[in-house]
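Structural prep section.
Before we set up the soaks we want a predicted structure of the protein with WT7 in place, mainly to decide which crystallisation condition to try first. Input record follows.
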Amino acid sequence: MAETNDHSVANGALLFDPPSNLQNEAHVKSMQQYQKMYKQSIEDPETFWREISAQFYWKSPPTGKFFEYNFDVGKGPISIKWMTGAKTNICYNMLDRHIANGLGDKVAFYWEGNDPNDFGKITYSELLARVSKFSNVLKNLGVSRGDRVAIYMPMILDLSVAMLACARIGAIHSIVFAGYSSESLAERILDATCSAIITADGVWRGTKLLNLKKIVDDALKICDEKGHRVEKCVVVRHLSPSDEIVKTNGDFEEEPEACRPSRKLKINWQPGRDIWWHEMMTSASSECEPEWMDAEDPLFMLYTSGSTGKPKGVLHTIGGYMLYTATTFKYVFDYQPDDVYWCTADVGWITGHSYVTYGPLGNGATGLIFEGTPFYPNAGRFWEIVDKYRVTKFYTAPTAIRALMKFGDDFVKKYKRDSLKILGTVGEPINPEAWLWYYRVVGNSKCAIVDTFWQTETGGHVLTPLPGATPTKPGSATFPFFGVIPALLTEEGKVIEGPGEGYLVFKQPWPSLMRTVYGNQERFETTYFKKFPGYYCTGDGAKRDEDGYIWITGRIDDMVNVSGHLLSTAEVESALITHKSVAEAASVSHPHSIKGECIYCFVTLKQGAEYTNDLVTELKNIVRAKIGPFAQPDFLQNAPALPKTRSGKIMRRILRKIAVGDRNLGDTSTLADESVIDVLFQNRPNNA
Ligand code: WT7
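Run finished without errors. Recording the C-alpha cells verbatim:
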C-alpha cells in the first residue's frame, strides 16, 4: 500500500489497509472472511480445530471428548484438555511428516553466527538425522519419557536439535534463557528436578565472550548443596578451535574480564557428569523411533516471573500447543512455501519456542536462527541478514526497533530489504512512533505490520492483525485470533461492552493455553482464575475503541516489562535485601526510551550503613548475579523511609510518581507518615 492510502479515523488514529499485493496471496483476504472464520471458531471450536488437526499425524484418535474445560474455581479444579487420549509425537510432526511429503531437501534452518563470516544451514532430512542421533544420546544417558531436561544454550542449531530430541523421546524440556545467572538457573532446575542439562562451552555475544559452562557449573553446585544432583551435563563444543579451552577439575575464580587473555576460556570438568556432545554423537544411531505420547502429556515448561517473586513453571502440553502454534504461524505470518522467515527472539523465551521452533517447523517452513545482536558489528546487521537470506517475514520486539531507530535511518537504507512482506512485533505495547518507523523506514511503506499480543501462558498469539485482512492502527494489537474470546472487565468483574477500559480476560480456552503451573496447581488457579471466576485473567489492562480495536495498556500487577521480558518487583527486591547494608527495598517500573520500562529501586539502609557510589554498584551487581544482567536496575535511590499505609503496605503507586518526579500524587490520605515524601523527592538521583 502506498502511504497516500493511510487514512485517519474518527478518533484521530491512523488506519493502514493491508498491502494489496499481499492480500492477493493471503490465506485470509478480507475482514469478512476473518469474521466468518472467527465466528465458526468460537461457536463450534470442536469442528474448527478438528479440521486443523487432520493436517497432523496422529497414531490414534482422541478417546474422550475433543475438548473440555473448567474455568470456574467455584466448580472444581481448573482444567483444560484437548484431544485427550490421542497419540502423537510432535517431533515426528515437525520433521518426519514433512520428509514423507517430499520436503526432505528443503532448508529447515539457516544459521547466522555472531561473526558475519560464520553461517550454515540444515535441511529437514539432516535435521531429522541429527535429532534422532541426539535422541539416542539422551536415551543412552538414561533420560526417558517424562524426565525433565534443562537446556541452557546459545542460539545455535543444536538448541533446536536438543529440544526436538527431548520431544521425540517424550522428555520434558525446560529451557532457561542463557542470560540468567547461575542462581536463577539453579532455582529453575530445582523446581523442575531436572535430571540432565544441555549447555555449550561458551558463546560470543558481540565482542563479549560468555562462559556458559561456568554458569552451569555454579548452578549445579547450588543444586548439589540443596540435595539435588543433576546426573548428566552435555556440553556442545561451540567455540572455534582458536578459542582455547582450559579444563580444570576444581573450582576457580573467574579472572576479571580485562586481564583474561582473549579467546581463552577456563571450564570446570567433572568426569562422569560432564560429557561432550560431539563425542556422544559420533557413535549414536541416526534412527530413533518416536515415543508415542498422549496429546495431553507435557511438552515443556518455561519459567516466567510471578508477582510473588518465585518464578512459575508454565506447563504446555503436546497436542494443543502443536495445533495452535502451527495455525497462528500460518495465518499471522501468512506462511507461503517459499518464505524465508526470521524471528529474532531467543529460543530461551516463549517467542523462540513457538515462533522460532514449533510454529515454523509445524508448517514445513524455512527459518533463520541468529546468534548475534542487532548492533554487532554495527546497527545494520539485521538488514544485512535480511538481504543475505532474502527474508520475507520478519519478527522482532519493540525494544529492538526503538534501539535501532536511535542509530538513524542510514543503517537501514544501506540495504535493499525488497524481499520483506510482513513485519511482526511482540513483547510489549509498541509506541506509535516506533510502529511508524518500522512501517515506513524498515518496510518502505509496503509491508504489513502485525502487532501480536500474547504471553508465555497463552502459548501463541491471541490478539493480532491478519496481514491480508486487518486494517491496522499503530499501537493496537487489533482483534482476537481464531478461537479466542477476549473481554474487558471492571474491578467488580462486570463485562464492559463497546468502548471502554478494563482488565483483559479470556472466556474459553484455545488449544495452547497453559495447563498448570508445574507442581503448583493452586498457584495456577490463584494467579489466573481466582479474581474473575469463569475467565482466564491476563494481568494486563486494555481498552477498546469505537471501532472495536483492542489496545493493551500494560500490566496491572507489580510486574516490570524490561525490553519485553517480565520481571516482578518482588524478585528484584528480594535480591537487594540480601545485601548486608540493606534493611528494606522497593522497586517500581520507570519509563525508558529503549527498554520500554526499566527498574527503579528505593533502598532503606540499616543503621550506620552509608549510601555511597560503591554501594550502588554492589547493589546493581547483586541483581545481576541473582537474576541476570538484563534485570539490572537503571536507577537506585536512598530511601530513609518508604511511603506505607497504616497497615504497613508499601505504596508503590506513590513510588512510581516519585521515580518520574511527578508531584501529582493523587490520594495520599492512606499514608501513615506523609513526611517521607519530601525526603524521597530530594533524594532522587541526578540522572533520573
Ligand atoms: C506480557 C507477556 C509473548 C512473548 C513475549 C513476552 C506484554 C506481549 C505484547 C503486545 C502489548 C504485550 C504483556 C503480556 N506483551 N506482547 N503485542 N502488546 N503488550 O512474553 O514474558 O510472557 O510477557 O508481555 O504485558 O502480558 P511474556
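Observations: Residues 124-140 form the longest helix (17 residues).
Flagged for discussion at group meeting.
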